Amino acid sequence: MKQELSKQLLAFLDASPTCYHAVDALKEKLLSNGYRQLWESRPWRLAEGGRYFVVRGESTLVAFRVPRRDFQGFVLAAGHSDSPTFKVREAAEVPSPGACTRLSVEPYGGMIMRSWLDRPLSVAGRVMAAEDGRIVSRLVKVDRDLLVIPSVAIHMDREVNKGAALHANTDLLPLLGGAGEPGQFRRLIAERAGVPEDTVLSTELFLYPRTPGTLLGLNGEFIAAPRLDDLQCVFGCFRGFLAAEDSGSVPVFCVFNNEEVGSGTRQGADSTFLTDVLSRVSAALGRSPEEHHAALANSFLVSADNAHAVHPAHPEYADKQECPVLNGGVVIKYNANQRYTTDALSGAVFRQICREAGVPVQRYSNRADLPGGSTLGNISSAHLSIPTVDIGLPQLAMHAAYEVAGVRDTEALVRAMTAYFGRSLRFGPEGVEVS
Ligand code: CO
């Protein structure tokens, strides 16, 4: 089995302990591929054939290419940069019983809490510091085993295997060290961020699991790693975006922060960021508002967020015919109540593109009596109302500290997105033209 692509995915996951690092890694790759960074706070000048990206909140990114010919619409795909984890509070050190110091944390998003116990952890994020009359941001990653959240021994908690509750405010504070002298954690962070400690104004730090991702299974057919939701989709869409041929549309790659907490932030999918970017692209290319609206009517969005594979021990959580399998291909998500945006039209467009690219497609719906989760698609639709399909790659253990997915599915997504980003769509009275 070809594993090269999955090794590159593992490297991306490893370089992306937080949403800030994920966006930074994408930025590096874009810069090395001839993309130029635009700033929201400055005027934009765009050229035909130009390649650009813009970042908001250091954790949300939109990249696009201007075609050399007149374009008729935008072909977009979006994933998310964040994953459930624990956020470290600024008053971080908590003196604890047993001559120990623990870190004060609170959950970010909905994680499987027990999966964070009894494994080496560390801290990464960003630090805001005062420097030469400015406030600057520095990414920080403590690249060593630093923390652990120890379980209570089974001898003291005989019910532990019967689903005993974990409380975020008591059970999940990671062990940092001995009683020691206070202030060491702050010193460590300042030192790793490369700034003098007394210049640190604020921090945004998160826990990350130290266990590196790996390929496993008899034939290396599975990938097990932290943050596959949603960095596997981000990686697949990004590779497709970079590889796609020019078409008569503007290809737009997006990655949003804060999906795991409802997207309602300045850099979330429920913000004006994407619509702001698209109108600025049109305006900078001298297009009228009328032409911009016509272009939006010839646009399409792929909302890419990982999906649930049928669990080998618990197939009862899926309805028959609606249960994707690992390595079975890209999943299209459906929901009668439109918690997933896919409808007959958007499903047909995406299915047709996959068919032409020879990419296998699977279907997913939540079990009909379970509510299930939602994702970027319908949130983004509130701002950018264009045909949207919700897709994902099948995975197990979603929102565990260590998740499992299929090696072949990453390849399938790259192929699908390479085809998709090279297409343009025209929605007319005689139907949809995909060229
Ligand atoms: Co997700």
Summarize the structure.
This protein is α/β, with parallel strands linked by helices and 435 residues long. It contains nine helices and 22 strands.
Describe the structure.
It is a single chain. The protein is an alpha/beta fold. It folds into two domains: 2-83 and 226-434, Zn peptidases (Aminopeptidase); 86-209, Aminopeptidase i, Domain 2. The chain has helices at residues 4-15, 19-32, 184-193, 228-243, 273-284, 289-296, 344-357, 376-381, 407-421, and strands at residues 36-38, 51-56, 60-65, 73-80, 85-96, 100-108, 121-131, 134-141, 175-178, 200-209, 214-216, 222-225, 249-256, 300-304, 307-308, 330-333, 361-364, 388-392, 394-396, 403-406, 425-428, 431-434. A nine-stranded mixed sheet has the order 1-2-3-13-4-14-18-16-17, sandwiched between helices. Strands 8-7-10-5-6-9 form a six-stranded antiparallel sheet, sandwiched between helices. Strand 11 and strand 12 form a beta hairpin. The relative contact order is 0.18. Residues 80, 229-230, 259, 305-306 line the site of cobalt (II) ion.
Any descriptors?
435 residues, alpha/beta, Aminopeptidase, Aminopeptidase i, Domain 2, 2 domains, 9-stranded mixed sheet, 6-stranded antiparallel sheet, 29% strand, globular, binds cobalt (II) ion
The total domain count is 2
Shape: globular
Mean pLDDT: 95
- Rg on CA atoms, Å: 22 Å
CATH class of the largest domain: Alpha Beta
Class by SSE composition: alpha/beta
Q: Helix segment count? A: 9
What's the end-to-end separation, in Å?
32 Å
Widest beta sheet: strand line-up = 1-2-3-13-4-14-18-16-17
Q: Give helix % range.
A: 10-25%
Low-confidence stretches: none
Ligand names: cobalt (II) ion
How many strands, which pairing sense, and closed or not: the largest β-sheet? Answer: 9 strands, mixed
Roughly what fraction of the amino acids lie in strands? 25-35%
Give me the CATH fold name of the largest domain. Aminopeptidase
CATH superfamily of the largest domain, called what?
A: Zn peptidases
The total strand number stands at 22
Name the CATH architecture of the largest domain: 3-Layer(aba) Sandwich
